[in-house]
Amino acid sequence: IAANESLEYLNLSWNNIRRKGAIAVANGLKNNVMLKHMNLSWNGFGDEGAVAIGEALKNNTILTWLDVSHNRITAEGIKFLAKGVEGNEGLKYFGVAHNPITSSGACQLLESFGKNSSAVIETVDITNVRVNEDLWAALKEAKQILTSLKVIHQPYMEGRKKPNPIASLKDWLGHNKHFELVEVFKRFDEEESMEVSKEVLMEAFQQAHLPFDKTNMEMLIDQLDGEGKESVNYTTLVDCDQVKWLDECLVRYNTSKKE
User: Fold this and answer.
1) Where does the pLDDT of residue 16 fall: very low under 50, low under 70, confident under 90, or very high at 90 and above?
2) Which of 49, 158, 163, 238 could be disulfide-bonded to 22 (CB atoms 3.0-4.6 Å)?
3) Which of 67, 10, 68 is nearest to 34 (CA)?
4) Is 103 within 8 Å of 75 (Cβ atoms)?
5) Nearest Cα residue to 208 out of 42, 97, 19
6) Is 238 exposed, middle or buried (0-12, 13-18, 19+ CB in 10 A)?
């Protein structure tokens, strides 16, 4: 990575990199002069990997997009990532979703971006973090300093409606523009019937690493089914924009619930 002179995009997700691998990657990032987009999600490197990546971020001004989601990083590990972004002048997207960083860890991260007068950060993904009063205050303060900042998080205040899985999927697709939902359906439609059962679709979405736990995955598939047929027909998805198709599924689902 340090010697790279041409590669700008690197996806190392789901490579079982673990601690030693993350440290090696981080050492390469310290002297990176070309790489702009790196996906390190689903590698399980934990807090020790976070320490190394935090150190790399202090020196790296080239990297603009970094995803370290699903890596078992705790509130202790996020401290080092927070230190790393305090002086970072290049990062525009930072994904730390589905790590057990807690709301206090998320506060530290946002406060660090807020301290950085040279920060160009646009999006921070902390999808699974529940927002309490302290985090809500940190969010508002960060957005006052970084006016274009978007933070993806759980809703604030108890009593609000649960997150809408289709809305969450649309948001995720916005950050993963190369992901083709129709290809997932086709891969698991062995009979080429343009229809996939809910059970098979659950396995398909898990293998595709969609960012949902089991409960929300089941809710998502129910919404896609829409009509209670225990399967999802994707005929119209083939020739349709996938976001528009998701909207149509949601309308059909909501209509069936009213009947």
Assistant:
1) confident
2) 49
3) 10
4) no
5) 42
6) exposed
